[in-house]
């Protein structure tokens, strides 16, 4: 899961301006998996939407593109194991918030639901895992 998270996060800098995410809010985004992360900023939902579009993970109606999302997840280590479970969780979360007309708010609520589902199933990465990976990547550059 940490590999998928880090891979998805690569689009954040690309999407910062489009989603009007401030530097401070962009910094907060790296704490997505922390228990106390707050899903309160619409701009964060817009950033997630942009990042999803960057990887072609959304349909024209701003819903998850199942095949592309499956392929994206499978492109990472352990993706074969996680893909179906993650796609199903995202789809279930989308169904819960399908009536939200604002795409950024809806995607933010779906992300919050997805995070909670991952934590309940014990597949959410820890902040320690993510930080260790980021440090290792920085050292390789």
TrEMBL record:
<dbReference type="InterPro" id="IPR006072">
    <property type="entry name" value="Odorant/phero-bd_Lep"/>
</dbReference>
<dbReference type="InterPro" id="IPR006170">
    <property type="entry name" value="PBP/GOBP"/>
</dbReference>
<comment type="similarity">
    <text>Belongs to the PBP/GOBP family.</text>
</comment>
<keyword id="KW-0813">Transport</keyword>
<protein>
    <submittedName>
        <fullName>General odorant-binding protein 1</fullName>
    </submittedName>
</protein>
<dbReference type="Pfam" id="PF01395">
    <property type="entry name" value="PBP_GOBP"/>
</dbReference>
<dbReference type="InterPro" id="IPR036728">
    <property type="entry name" value="PBP_GOBP_sf"/>
</dbReference>
<dbReference type="GO" id="GO:0005549">
    <property type="term" value="F:odorant binding"/>
</dbReference>
């Amino acid at each position: 899961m940490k590999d998928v998270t880090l891979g998805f996060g690569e689009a954040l800098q690309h999407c910062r301006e489009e989603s009007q995410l401030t530097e401070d809010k962009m910094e907060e985004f790296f704490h997505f998996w922390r228990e106390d992360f707050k899903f309160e900023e619409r701009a964060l939902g817009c950033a997630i939407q942009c990042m999803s579009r960057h990887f072609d993970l959304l349909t024209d109606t701003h819903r998850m593109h199942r095949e592309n999302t499956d392929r994206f997840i499978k492109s990472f280590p352990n993706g074969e194991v996680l893909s179906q479970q993650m796609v199903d969780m995202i789809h279930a979360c989308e169904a819960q918030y399908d009536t939200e007309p604002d795409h950024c708010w809806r995607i933010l609520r779906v992300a919050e639901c997805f995070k909670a589902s991952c934590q309940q199933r014990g597949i959410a990465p820890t902040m320690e895992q993510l930080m260790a990976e980021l440090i290792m990547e920085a050292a390789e550059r």
